Amino acid sequence: xxxxxxxxxxxxxxxxxxxxxxxxxxxxxxxxxxxxxxxxxxxxxxxxxxxxxxxxxxxxxxxxxxxxxxxxxxxxxxxxxxxxxxxxxxxxxxxxxxxxxxxxxxxxxxxxxxxxxxxxxxxxxxxxxxxxxx
Length: 134
Description:
Blueprint: H1 6-14, E1 18-23, E2 29-34, E3 37-41, E4 44-49, H2 54-61, E5 64-71, E6 76-87, H3 91-103, E7 111-122
Antiparallel strand pairs: 1-2, 1-5, 3-4, 4-7, 5-6, 6-7
Protein backbone atom coordinates (compact mmCIF):
# COMPACT_ATOMS: atom_id res chain seq x y z
CA UNK A 1 0.00 0.00 0.00
CA UNK A 2 0.99 3.61 -0.47
CA UNK A 3 0.25 6.68 1.65
CA UNK A 4 -1.73 9.41 -0.06
CA UNK A 5 -0.62 13.00 0.43
CA UNK A 6 -2.88 15.58 2.05
CA UNK A 7 -3.41 17.15 -1.38
CA UNK A 8 -4.73 13.85 -2.76
CA UNK A 9 -6.99 13.27 0.26
CA UNK A 10 -8.34 16.84 0.02
CA UNK A 11 -9.13 16.33 -3.66
CA UNK A 12 -11.02 13.12 -2.87
CA UNK A 13 -13.02 14.91 -0.15
CA UNK A 14 -14.14 17.63 -2.58
CA UNK A 15 -15.65 15.38 -5.25
CA UNK A 16 -19.11 13.91 -5.08
CA UNK A 17 -20.20 11.75 -6.77
CA UNK A 18 -17.07 9.82 -7.74
CA UNK A 19 -16.94 7.62 -10.87
CA UNK A 20 -15.70 4.20 -9.73
CA UNK A 21 -14.44 1.55 -12.17
CA UNK A 22 -14.37 -2.22 -11.72
CA UNK A 23 -14.15 -5.13 -14.12
CA UNK A 24 -15.62 -8.59 -14.25
CA UNK A 25 -13.61 -11.77 -13.95
CA UNK A 26 -13.36 -11.86 -17.76
CA UNK A 27 -12.31 -8.19 -17.99
CA UNK A 28 -15.59 -6.48 -18.91
CA UNK A 29 -15.35 -2.93 -17.48
CA UNK A 30 -18.03 -1.16 -15.46
CA UNK A 31 -18.20 2.42 -14.16
CA UNK A 32 -20.66 3.57 -11.49
CA UNK A 33 -21.16 6.88 -9.73
CA UNK A 34 -20.66 6.60 -5.97
CA UNK A 35 -22.07 9.19 -3.58
CA UNK A 36 -20.59 7.82 -0.35
CA UNK A 37 -16.79 7.60 -0.64
CA UNK A 38 -14.37 9.02 1.93
CA UNK A 39 -10.80 8.74 3.14
CA UNK A 40 -10.32 6.81 6.39
CA UNK A 41 -6.56 7.32 6.56
CA UNK A 42 -3.69 7.94 4.08
CA UNK A 43 -3.78 4.28 2.96
CA UNK A 44 -7.51 3.47 3.15
CA UNK A 45 -10.77 4.64 1.58
CA UNK A 46 -14.31 3.67 2.58
CA UNK A 47 -17.10 3.28 0.03
CA UNK A 48 -20.70 2.52 0.92
CA UNK A 49 -22.38 -0.06 -1.28
CA UNK A 50 -25.88 1.36 -1.51
CA UNK A 51 -27.00 0.29 -4.98
CA UNK A 52 -24.17 -1.75 -6.49
CA UNK A 53 -25.26 -4.43 -8.93
CA UNK A 54 -22.56 -5.04 -11.55
CA UNK A 55 -20.02 -3.37 -9.27
CA UNK A 56 -20.82 -5.79 -6.44
CA UNK A 57 -20.60 -8.79 -8.72
CA UNK A 58 -17.32 -7.54 -10.19
CA UNK A 59 -15.76 -7.02 -6.75
CA UNK A 60 -16.81 -10.54 -5.72
CA UNK A 61 -14.81 -11.98 -8.65
CA UNK A 62 -12.11 -9.33 -9.12
CA UNK A 63 -11.48 -7.29 -5.94
CA UNK A 64 -9.74 -4.40 -7.71
CA UNK A 65 -11.09 -0.87 -8.10
CA UNK A 66 -10.06 2.43 -9.66
CA UNK A 67 -11.51 5.92 -9.55
CA UNK A 68 -10.62 9.42 -10.60
CA UNK A 69 -11.12 12.66 -8.68
CA UNK A 70 -10.79 16.24 -9.88
CA UNK A 71 -10.69 19.60 -8.10
CA UNK A 72 -11.67 22.35 -10.55
CA UNK A 73 -10.33 25.07 -8.22
CA UNK A 74 -6.80 23.67 -7.77
CA UNK A 75 -6.92 21.95 -11.19
CA UNK A 76 -5.59 18.76 -9.60
CA UNK A 77 -6.74 15.39 -10.85
CA UNK A 78 -5.74 11.97 -9.52
CA UNK A 79 -6.48 8.38 -10.44
CA UNK A 80 -6.43 6.01 -7.46
CA UNK A 81 -6.23 2.20 -7.75
CA UNK A 82 -6.47 -0.43 -5.07
CA UNK A 83 -7.69 -3.75 -3.72
CA UNK A 84 -10.92 -4.08 -1.81
CA UNK A 85 -12.39 -5.98 1.08
CA UNK A 86 -16.20 -6.11 1.35
CA UNK A 87 -17.58 -6.03 4.90
CA UNK A 88 -21.20 -6.79 5.82
CA UNK A 89 -21.05 -6.74 9.62
CA UNK A 90 -18.96 -5.51 12.53
CA UNK A 91 -17.49 -2.19 13.59
CA UNK A 92 -16.56 -0.81 10.16
CA UNK A 93 -19.93 -1.79 8.70
CA UNK A 94 -21.71 -0.12 11.64
CA UNK A 95 -19.63 3.05 11.16
CA UNK A 96 -20.57 3.09 7.47
CA UNK A 97 -24.28 2.70 8.33
CA UNK A 98 -24.08 5.62 10.78
CA UNK A 99 -22.28 7.78 8.18
CA UNK A 100 -24.90 7.07 5.50
CA UNK A 101 -27.83 7.41 7.95
CA UNK A 102 -26.57 10.84 9.05
CA UNK A 103 -26.91 12.09 5.46
CA UNK A 104 -29.71 9.93 4.01
CA UNK A 105 -31.53 7.83 6.62
CA UNK A 106 -33.58 5.77 4.17
CA UNK A 107 -30.66 4.88 1.89
CA UNK A 108 -29.89 1.14 1.53
CA UNK A 109 -26.63 0.06 3.18
CA UNK A 110 -25.62 -3.27 1.69
CA UNK A 111 -21.90 -3.33 2.57
CA UNK A 112 -18.83 -1.32 3.48
CA UNK A 113 -16.16 -1.52 0.79
CA UNK A 114 -12.66 -0.90 2.13
CA UNK A 115 -10.14 0.18 -0.51
CA UNK A 116 -6.47 -0.36 0.25
CA UNK A 117 -4.71 2.22 -1.93
CA UNK A 118 -1.96 0.67 -4.04
CA UNK A 119 -1.28 3.24 -6.78
CA UNK A 120 -1.92 6.94 -7.43
CA UNK A 121 -1.46 8.65 -10.80
CA UNK A 122 -1.41 12.30 -11.90
CA UNK A 123 -4.35 12.54 -14.30
CA UNK A 124 -4.13 16.21 -15.33
CA UNK A 125 -3.34 16.93 -18.97
CA UNK A 126 0.23 18.05 -19.51
CA UNK A 127 3.75 16.73 -19.38
CA UNK A 128 3.13 14.54 -16.31
CA UNK A 129 -0.27 13.15 -17.37
CA UNK A 130 -0.57 9.51 -16.46
CA UNK A 131 2.59 9.56 -14.35
CA UNK A 132 2.54 7.28 -11.32
CA UNK A 133 3.15 9.50 -8.31
CA UNK A 134 2.71 6.97 -5.50
